[in-house]
TrEMBL record, chain A:
Keywords: Amino-acid transport, ATP-binding, Cell membrane, Membrane, Nucleotide-binding, Transport. This is Amino acid ABC transporter ATP-binding protein. PROSITE patterns: ABC_TRANSPORTER_1, ABC_TRANSPORTER_2. InterPro entries: AAA+_ATPase (IPR003593), ABC_ATPase_HisP-typ (IPR030679), ABC_transporter-like_ATP-bd (IPR003439), ABC_transporter-like_CS (IPR017871), MetN_ABC_transporter-like (IPR050086), P-loop_NTPase (IPR027417). Its main location: membrane. It comes from Isoptericola peretonis. Belongs to the ABC transporter superfamily.
Automatic annotation (TrEMBL), chain B:
The lineage of its organism: Bacteria, Bacillati, Actinomycetota, Actinomycetes, Micrococcales. InterPro entries: AA_ABC_transptr_permease_3TM, ArtM/GltK/GlnP/TcyL/YhdX-like, MetI-like, MetI-like_sf. This is ABC transporter permease subunit. Keywords: Amino-acid transport, Cell membrane, Membrane, Transmembrane, Transmembrane helix, Transport. The chain crosses the membrane at residues 20-45, 66-84, 96-116, 195-221. Its main location: membrane. The keyword Transmembrane applies. It comes from Isoptericola peretonis.
């Protein structure tokens, strides 16, 4: 099963560059929370440069999938590889791998006691051991790119949700990650701030960043995604191009789900 | 009232009242520094991902917190010093002082640990997850992200621990000879029984003068340094 290769030829939304080799591979991944089976035999390959959107009803395991990829959640069985390397168990090797996987949370999670600029330079200086002047210069470039350079000296609580989330994206990008994970990055935002964050994400996708995005924003999926994966009850039920999925879903669960989010 | 004032005057003239309180202040100062260090290490053990360290930290806290300070002091003076002949200084008074600091430290470190842990509970889980997600391992994440926020959330309980420590510094002498506030009080009462109210008020005021600023300062600092979320 090679979804990535199939999408390069058939996907109308596919952007410029052809997709590269597999970057994130999940094989037969299972995860339980006590009795609850939250990830069931998940097989998924994301290629370099691919943008994958994950949708599904609440509790279907989307966050758990995302968090398993950088081992914020451990798995019970199966294998996860990033760039060919199996996820390390713990310690230095795991920390090193996490530095290569950017993560953007629903609740932003900016370091509350650090300025915006310090939030972005902390990783490069403390993890990548970059010189602080160089890290600062790059951080300001990134903040400029996401449109919040003029807020660099403020504390996170002084910024709006949309601004905080754009800083969180800059913080992740500062680590020069191989892949970026987004777990419902806009669902905690007021409606008028959603687009400013999605615009940054679309731009990132067009630049060729490999992205796994849990979101129900169909506009984003249509504009930027190569592929949509629909999850229900811990399983991948359906995979398709955004166009196919949103206009002609095959499974009953997906039809039901789409009718609910469209009626909002 | 005027009566009390003249009695105070006489007491101050006969005894070294500030000198006695100074001993309590010194005991408190050193024990506060060492128990802050030890308490932080214990708190780190308790929040660490390593089960054996968690267990060791929890055991320490539960045992020391539930042992009366007088028992710890007596153990140090009688068992360690007198029986095992372990001394920390050739000077007799210094030796008492150092054992006093150790006893106060090991006891209050358990409370400092719990104060810091309550501070850690004020830090949202997302902070630690974001720290791990950018590639910080446990110790750097604790040092750079968790503890700085936890300390700010723990200023009030740490202040309470400091106040308790200051008052508990009198226990050191229940088993020693050095002259600090409570020994001096006993001595005064023995030779000036008719001044009993004045003596009591003098020492109550003396501790109030030391404790109230600590309370005011910690309230001010915990508002001033609170992490805005
Ligand atoms: N730490 C946990 N302990 C126990 N159960 C959990 C834990 N985290 C998640 N779950 C459960 O696992 C299931 C999957 O959760 P998950 O957060 O992955 O779903 P989701 O698809 O992201 O849902 P949502 O759209 O609401 O964010 C849910 O039933 C949830 O209640
Ligand atoms: Mg979720």
């Amino acid at each position: 099963m090679d979804h990535g290769a199939a999408t390069t030829t058939t996907d109308p939304a596919a952007t410029s560059a052809p997709l590269g080799p597999p970057l994130v591979e999940l094989k037969d991944v299972n995860k339980h929370f006590g009795e609850l089976h939250v990830l069931k035999d998940i097989d998924l390959t994301v290629r370099k440069g691919e943008v994958l959107v994950v949708v599904g009803p609440s509790g279907s395991g989307k966050s758990t999938l995302c968090r398993a990829i950088n081992r914020l959640e451990t798995i019970d069985s199966g294998e996860i590889r990033i760039d060919g390397v199996p996820l390390p168990e713990e310690g230095k090797a795991l920390a090193k791998l996490r530095a290569d996987v950017g993560m953007v949370f629903q609740a932003f999670n900016l370091f509350a006691h650090k300025t915006i600029l310090e939030n972005v330079t902390l990783g490069p200086v403390k993890v990548r051991r970059e010189r602080s002047a160089a890290a600062k210069e790059r951080a300001l470039e990134l903040l400029d790119r996401v449109g919040v350079k003029n807020q660099a000296g403020k504390m996170p609580a002084q910024l709006s949700g949309g601004q905080q989330q754009r800083v969180a994206i800059a913080r992740a990008l500062a680590m020069k990650p191989k892949v970026m994970l987004f777990d419902e990055p806009t669902s905690a935002l007021d409606p008028e701030m959603i687009n400013e964050v999605l615009d940054v994400m679309v731009a990132l996708a067009k630049e060729g960043m490999t992205m796994i995005v849990v979101t129900h924003e169909m506009g984003f999926a249509r504009k930027a995604a190569n592929r949509v994966v629909f999850m229900a009850d811990g399983q991948i039920v359906e995979e398709a191009t955004p166009e196919e999925f949103f206009t002609a879903p095959k499974s009953a669960r997906a039809k039901d789900f789409l009718s609910k989010i469209l009626s909002h | 009232m005027g009566d009390f004032l003249s009695q105070f005057g006489e007491l101050f003239a006969t005894y070294d009242v500030p000198g006695a309180f100074w001993v309590n202040i010194q005991l408190t100062f050193w024990a506060a520094i060492f128990s802050l260090v030890l308490g932080t290490v214990l708190a780190l053990m308790r929040i660490s991902p390593i089960a054996s360290l968690q267990w060791a930290g929890t055991s320490y806290v539960n045992i020391l917190r539930n042992t009366p300070l007088t028992v710890i002091m007596t153990f140090l003076f009688l068992a360690v010093w007198t029986q095992l002949q372990i001394t920390l200084s050739d000077d007799f008074a210094q030796n008492f002082f150092r054992f006093g600091v150790i006893g106060l430290t090991v006891y209050h470190a358990a409370f400092v640990c719990e104060a810091i842990r309550s501070g850690v509970n004020t830090v949202p889980l997302g902070q630690a997850e974001a720290a791990r997600a950018i590639g910080l391992s446990f110790l750097p994440a604790a040092r750079l992200i968790i503890l700085p926020q936890a300390f700010r959330g723990a200023i009030a309980p740490l202040g309470n621990t400091l106040i308790a420590l200051l008052k508990n510094s009198t226990v050191v002498v229940a088993v020693s000879v050095s002259t600090e506030a409570s020994t001096l009080m006993r001595e005064m009462i023995e030779s000036n029984a008719n001044f009993i109210y004045a003596i009591f008020i003098l020492f109550a005021l003396g501790f109030a003068v030391l404790v109230i600023p600590v309370g005011l300062l910690t309230t001010y600092l915990s508002n001033r340094l609170a992490v805005r979320r």
